[in-house]
Amino acid sequence: MSASGPGLTVGEMLRKHGVSRRGFIKYCTATASALALPPWMGAAMAEQLRNAPRPSVVYLSFQECTGCFEAFTRSFSPTIEHLMFDIISLDYDDTLMAASGTAAESALASVMKEHFGRYVLIVDGSIPTGASGAYCTSGGRSAEVILREAAKGAAVILAVGTCSAFGGIPFADPNPTGAWPVSAIVGDRPIINVSGCPPIPEVITGTLLQYVTTGSLPDLDENRRPRAFYGNSIHDRCYRRPFYDEGKFAKTFDDEGARNGWCLYELGCKGPTTYNACATVKWNGGTSFPIESGHGCIGCSEPGFWDKGSFYTAQAAADFTKSGETRPLEVLEFAGATLTVGAVLGAGSAGVGRLRQHRSELDEVAQNDKGTP
Amino acid sequence: MSRLGDIPIRIESMESPVPDRPDGGLGGAIDAVLSEIASLLERLAKNDEHSMIDLRSLPLSQADRAALQSALGDGEVHATLQAVGRSTARETRFAGVWWLEHRDPAGDLVAELLEVARFPQILASAPDEIADAAKALRSHRRLQ
Amino acid sequence: MTLDLLGFARGPALKAALAIFCAGVVWRIAAFALLRIRRDLNRPRTSMLKYMSMGVLAIGTRSWPHPQFVKRTGAGEALGYSYHLGLFAILLLFGPHIEFLGSLFGFTWPGLPSGVITGISAVTLTLFLGVLYRRVTSRVIRMLSNFDDYFSWFVTMLVMVTGMATTAHLGARYETLLALHILSVDLLLVWFPFGKLMHAFYIFPSRAINSAILARKGAPS
User: Does the structural domain C5-34+72-216 have CATH classification 1.20.950.20?
Assistant: First the structure.
């Protein structure tokens, strides 16, 4: 964790670490390219950041698996990652910092005081409210209390990962810890949701870089996610789309279709309703993404994705049960029940109908008798 | 059900995210790129306007990329840059059109661009670095 | 578990709609199937086997107007067949639909490329508009039409339009369009047993029974 010198600009910090202006331009250009931003933005970012003071960043982790933090620190190759930590001043993070106990607590308190109103607060993990917050505590204080306090002085909050953005896995039915996303706890600070389980590393750093460079919120969708990365669905950018359009689907994970790289819709791919940058930015520095590796998208950047049905059943399949997989027995039971009800009602109606038929025949006979001279 | 060993292995490099067309033919993709480069080059000639095309943003297959490279050809200048990994800047045979490749210290390609300019901006020395260098040279022991 | 519109449309709403559809269809079929056929006191002109099989055959032979009437009604019949074929193609040969039906029936079948289905949908939609035009402009048909006709047309049209909008991502977010499409299917399923859409189940038995009755009376096929 790098300590910021008093009033060092980003450019000065980089020069101090032997990163030339060309190296910095190269990093920003590569970042812009990885994030599918226009190439001129790379140079513009570099220029803008060079003279800017290093933004203070506080990273708080709550009910999480640390996957998002791992993603954050694995952005690009090891050397370039350090550039990110030269640009920002990561003033508090419980995973990386050497301090612990009361020393750590006072570090957090002093950072929040010194940079009040200006620091970027990054949060991962959901916030449990059950059992008065006992499910996640640090230093005797619950996650909710710590978050509310930290949020007061934050210029912006980045909710990194689906847990902090939408509740994630703890929020899934039956939500035993009473978990909530950051936006349910904090209502009066700007929040950017960088969802994903985990989010793509370059999306985290790219969003952070965008905010740090422009000083304002990027264009956000209705789930408060940056449209630059979450504006398109996986389906719309998937390289297997031609197979979907041609109706060529893999039926199992090892059949001919799967080996030919056909569409994984029938194997449960949630690409059509998932918004993320996986198909364009990809993972591991652009190496691949789940669909390219042969597994359907599980929709990990969407709210409630754990409760949206089986990962291996096609989205179009009937979805009556909580598990999201309609089993044959359930269908038979359903059919049996409804058909029985229908038959009973039908028999009833027919009974009434026959009664009327009988009466009208009697009437007819009676009329005929009358009419016969 | 087949065995694991029966599954063919195909390694795809980041340089070709788009699978080659089954007929091996070239799409009209590079015609569109060449046309755009031509317009940008005209703008450079007329207004000294500098621009860039991110090759990663274009859906080019290996074949398309090779065709683009051979269409643009090689020019007089070939520059190598060592800054956080190796980068190269090649002028193509069309003056003002430069092909830039940025690699990280591990050697992986992190960005590939076409820059339409008198020279790639990244090659120019920065004014503040020049100022620092002037001070450093003036205080060089040989000039004391 | 919180439900968004799509979750509601695909979950509880679809389940309820399917329940009403199944129960309703069986109700209406049973209600007429269990009725007594009015006893004909006449002597049957042919054997029971003969008149019953003539009834069944009539399903096929009466599926196109008699040559004398073709000039007047042929176009309307052709229009009807065409859009029905289109509707069946869209419903049964489109990938996601096959997935849905397959999950209910336990087996799937090969479909057509999605682009082909889009083309068929466009043609079917146009024919469907043509059908409404005919109903509204022909004096006789207009006189015979009631709410049931128009509403059944509307409900079917809504399913097609929302379906096309969903695949084209036109007009709103994909999830919203998909939810609207499934909700329109739910509406169709709920309305189906109680309106003229029941002709899907009635038409063939009705034709067969009427023809059998007439064949018993000695009418040639």
Answer: yes
